[in-house]
Write a structure and sequence with these properties.
Elements: H1 13-33, H2 44-64, H3 66-74, H4 85-101, H5 110-127, H6 137-157, H7 163-170, H8 174-181, H9 194-203, H10 209-218, H11 222-232, H12 242-249, H13 253-268, H14 274-299, H15 304-310, H16 315-324, H17 328-340, H18 357-369, E1 399-401, E2 404-407
Amino acid sequence: MDELPRALPLLTADEEVRLARLIEAGVAASAVLAGHRLRVEASRAELERIVGEGEKARERFLLSNLRLVVFAVGGLSSRVPGGLRDDVFQEGVAALAEALRGYDWRRGRFSTLALRNVRWRVEEYVAGAGGSLGVPAGRAMVIRRARSIAARLESESGRPAKASEVAAELGRDVASTESLLRHQPAMSIEAMPPELQKRTLAAAPAGGPGEALRPDVRRLPRNQRDVITLRFGLTDGRPRSWLEVAAETGTSVSTAKRACKLGLATLRNPAPQPAAEAAALVQARRTAERLKEVDRLSKAGLSLVEVAIALKAEPVEVHDMCVAGRRQDLLARFGRLEQSHGFEPSPYTAPYVVETEESARRRARFLAASPTEEPATTPPPLARPRHETVAPPTTTNLRRHPDGPGQQPGGRGIGW
């Protein structure tokens, strides 16, 4: 993308009209050669020549407008990883070709139509496939905009941005804005820190999701258990259709659906066990209290590592506690704090922050101001301190003078 292949100068308005008319003529000639009934007086050789000229005109048109794609992709360079830049550029070129197919030279310049289409296509690709947020492209764009607004407000005010402030500028209610700011993207196990990898793998069921559901499914009535097992393939991994479930259970489709609905309702709302419920309530209260402490310390300006030291825990435990309590905003606050000091966000906070131009400048200043190692030199010897010992005056040779409190012998007295 750095050097455009066979890049040509931009087209003038007259050149765009001429090339567009050649392209239209080539499309019409192709239709005639394909068998469409159009009244033309040209021979087959002339039609093939017109088709060739149209293809050359299309190629010239696209190559001359590649700078539109570079311009659209350049605004997203900070959000596009290095390995995806070629893919993003290809998406922009595909959008450029689609815009050319719908271009009408009678309605104005090509850039007016193409730039909007290319920019939308590129942003959609970056937000969806390239953004790794795990949500549709439209919602991913809203999430990035909300985080960008929060980062800008925090940079301007010097304090974490409130959800109400972001919601006012975003044009949404506070609840939906908080949901956008707390969004946690999916993270692959390979990208996790080693400690988090061990915890995730240890918590994962050995036999897959079906193995974790079996104890709860066994407590269901027999008809509900059989229907759910067959419908979702919990035994052999092959889900059945309703007709297959009805045939294997010897019931009708409506009866099988009703049994499945009752069983799923029981699984979603199990009867609480007193001891387990009390233990879960106590654990939830402890987590809420520790999250309040994390919130207070983070507002005081402490980093994630410093908060972990204050709580006598590991950084990964603080990360897991924030995730379990749905307080990803705290991790985002830690990440923005690291960016404000010129550091690159840690693996625990990087998925929750977006790099802005201000954070990039701060990191560049921090790296530029980092002192280089100087050769060790022997410190100069300390100079001997100059001091003087003053002995207190003796009183053996003093005598009381009638005119003063005390005087040296032979001296002149001062009248009091």
